[in-house]
Design goal:
Helix content: 55-70%
Shape: elongated
Largest sheet: none
Distance between the termini: 75 Å
Order of helices and strands: HHHHHHHH
Strand content: under 5%
Structural class: mainly alpha
Number of strands: 0
Length: 173
Amino acid sequence: MYRKVKFSIEFKKECMTLIFLKHRSVSRVSKEKGVSIRLLGRWKNLYEQKGIKGLIPKKTKIYSSLFKLKVLNVITKYSISLEQACIDFDIGSSASIVNWQRCYKSNGFVGLQNKPKGKARVMKNKSLKKKLNPSLTREEELVQANKSLKAELDYLKKLQALVQARVSKEKRP
């Protein structure tokens, strides 16, 4: 699954040509092309490190918790920048590493573990009841339905009696 690409590979190549072959500054190319200096600098670093392959958009990846811990340890041990860590470990964005750091700081190693995404599935009551009583015969089902209907009728009778008592109480001054 690829992320939405805002700039084509041809556009990125054109920017790198202006920087490396025409010897223009990053800020000048940024103004000419309407790209932020920071993004253009990131492209430049990727191009210097990995060539044209560094400019190709990366697939969305799911990283293991051990990989995340390894990245965080390397950043701490060698004091490398987040951008450099992204290049070295082939991570799409430094925002991912910032998020890992925050989770690790608050929850430790458990915070780095991948969590299931999406809405949790909830079992409906009807299907749960059917699964609990699959061996009932037709007669047993009818007896059970009869009991529940009797209970409902008793409840409604008591409720009606309470309502009538309240109404008669209100009528008395």
